[in-house]
Amino acid sequence: MLRYLPLLLLAWAPSRPASAAGERPNILFVFSDDHAAQAIGAYGSRINQTPHIDRLAAEGMRFANCFCGNSICAPSRATVLTGQHSHRNGVVDNGAVFDGSQTTFPKLLRSAGYQTALIGKWHLKSDPTGFDHWEVLIGQGPYYNPPMLTAQGRRRHHGYTTEIITDLALEWLREERDPERPFLLMYQHKAPHREWEPGPRQLSLYDDVEIPEPATLFDDYGGRAAGARSQEMTLERHLSPRDLKLVPPPGLDEAQLALWNAAYGPKNAAFEAANLEGEALVRWRYQRYLKDYLRCVASVDENLGRVLDYLAENGLEENTIVVYSSDQGFYLGEHGWYDKRWMYEESLRMPLIVRWPRAVRPGSVEERLVSNIDFAPTFLEAAGVPVPEAMQGASLLGLLRGEQPRDWRESVYYHYYEFPGVHAVQRHYGVRDERYKLIHYYQLDEWELFDLERDPSELASVHADPAYAKVRERLEAELVRLGELYGETPPPRGGARSR
Ligand SMILES: [Ca+2]
User: Fold this and answer.
1) How many percent of the chain have pLDDT more than 70?
2) What predicted TM-score, i.e. pTM, was given to this entire model?
3) Is the pLDDT of residue 10 over 90?
4) Domain with 439 in it
C-alpha cells in the first residue's frame, strides 16, 4: 500500500507549516459535471489532453481511487456539502429537493470567518445556503445564453456557459473578494454533462482525428446480472438527434447558429450520405459523442487555466487549496454506454486532484480508497474548523501531507436509488475494496462479484464461482458492517423499496 519511500517523505519539506495561525488557506473547489477520469491526461487518458488539470496534478496530489457513494448529479453534490451519504442528507436521487437547513461545510466555514461564494451549477432545487454570494444555473442550465439565479433574482447572460461561469468566478475574485479574509469559492461547471454541446472555440476540435474505441464498445452483457441488459443508455439505441448534433441546440442567436451550422452542417451532410448501419453506425455515434464530450472538456480545461493564471498573478497560489473533481464518472463508450449510475468502475470513480503548495508534495499519487463523503471534513480540518460528528467521511489532510495512517478505511459503500427512472438502471448497493466488488440488485435479488485485478472491465461476475466463496462471505459481512456504520437499514429484497 505504501506509495512512496519514507525517505522521499522526509525529503519533502513544505515551504511553511500548513495552517499556520492567521494564515488559513483559501479553498478553490473546481467541480465539473460528469467528467470521467478516463478523459483526464493525469489519469492516463488515451483520448484527449487536459494540460491545466494535469498541471494541478503535477504540482499537487492525484487520488487514484476516489469513489462516489451514489453515481448521479444531485446526490453527489449533496454528499459533498454535508459529508454524508444520500440516505442521511435526503438527496437519494435527482428528484429530491436538498434541505438547505442542514449543516454544510460552506456554512461552517462562513461562521468561522471565511468569505464564501458559489458560481455555476448547483442542481439541488432549493436556494443555496451558506454563501455570501451565489449565482447559479437553473436546474441543469443550457450550454448557451444561460439565465442564472442570484439572491436578488434572475440574470440573463449571453455566450457559452463554461466561459460565463469562469468570467463570473474571476469577477468575484477581482471585485468582491475581501483580501483580509480567507475565501471558499465553489466554481462549478455544467460541462461536460449531456447534451455535450461544444463552445464556439471548440466546434471543430478533433474533426481530423479518430478517437480510440474502448475494448468493450460492443459488449454483449453476458456474465452479469439482468440489469446490465435492460438498461437504456446505449450508444446504439438511446441517443437523441440533439445528443448527436443532428439538430442545433435551442436558444442560439443568429451569429451562434451560423457558427454552429458552419461546423456541423458539412459533417451531418457527410453522415447522411454515408447511410451507415449496424456496427458502422455505432462507431460513427461513438466518434460523434466522444468528440463533443471532449470538446466540452477542452473548454473546462482551458477556462480553468484562466483561473489558475489569476491565482498565480495575484499571489494566491501558495496558500490556496485548489481541488479539481467531478460529481461522478461517466461511460465514454465502455460497455457500449454513455451516462453513469452504475457501481461499475467508470461511473463509480471520481477524479480528485488537490494542489496546495504549503502542504502537498508535487506530483504525488495517493492510492487509498477515498470518497466524496471525505471532501467536507477535509475542507473543515484545513480551515481549523471542528468536523461535526454527523459527517460520515474522514479528512484527507493527513494523506495530503504525505502521512501514512495505519487505520485508513479498507472499503467504500455504494447505493444507487433512482429506479424506475431515466436510463432504467436497477437499484443496487454494494461494497468495493482494494481488489473486489460486491453488488446486490436487491429488487431483482441478483448479485455480482468482480475480481478487479483479473477482470478490470467487470465482464464476468464470479459470484457463483466456488473459488471465490470466502471472498464473497467476507464482502457480504463487510456490506452489513458498512450499512451499520453509516446507519442505513438494508434494503428489502424484491418489490419497491419504501423510503
Ligand atoms: Ca453529474
Assistant:
1) 95
2) 0.95
3) no
4) 413-486
Q: Cα of 109 to ligand 1 centre, how many Å?
A: 25
**Is there a single domain that holds both residue 312 and residue 404?**
yes
Domains held by the chain: number: 2
**What are 74-90's pLDDT values in tens digits?**
999 999 999 999 999 99
- pLDDT tens digits for range 459-498: 999 999 999 999 999 999 999 999 999 999 999 888 644 4
Distance 182 CA to ligand 1 centre (A): 28
119 and 154 together in one domain: yes
Co-location of 132 and 171 in the same domain: yes
Q: Are residues 407 and 422 in the same domain?
A: no
Q: Are residues 189 and 151 in the same domain?
A: yes
The alpha carbon of 318 and the centre of ligand 1 are apart by a number of angstroms equal to 30
**Domain holding 367: CATH number?**
3.40.720.10
CA of 34 to the centre of ligand 1 (A): 4
> What are the angstrom distances between the C-alpha of 156 and each of 30, 202, 371?
23, 23, 36
Return the C-alpha torsion angle 108, 112, 117, 123, nearest 10.
0
If you compute the radius of gyration of the chain from its CA atoms, what whole number of angstroms results?
22
CA of residue 104 to ligand 1 center, whole Å: 20
Contact yes or no for 40/330 (Cβ under 8 A): no
Do 331 and 451 fall within a single domain? no
Distance 193 CA to ligand 1 centre (A): 7
Cα of 36 to ligand 1 centre, how many Å?
A: 10
**Is 283 within the bounds of a domain?**
no
- Residues 6 or more apart whose Cβ sits within 8 Å of residue 413: 69, 85, 429, 430, 431, 479, 482, 483, 485, 486
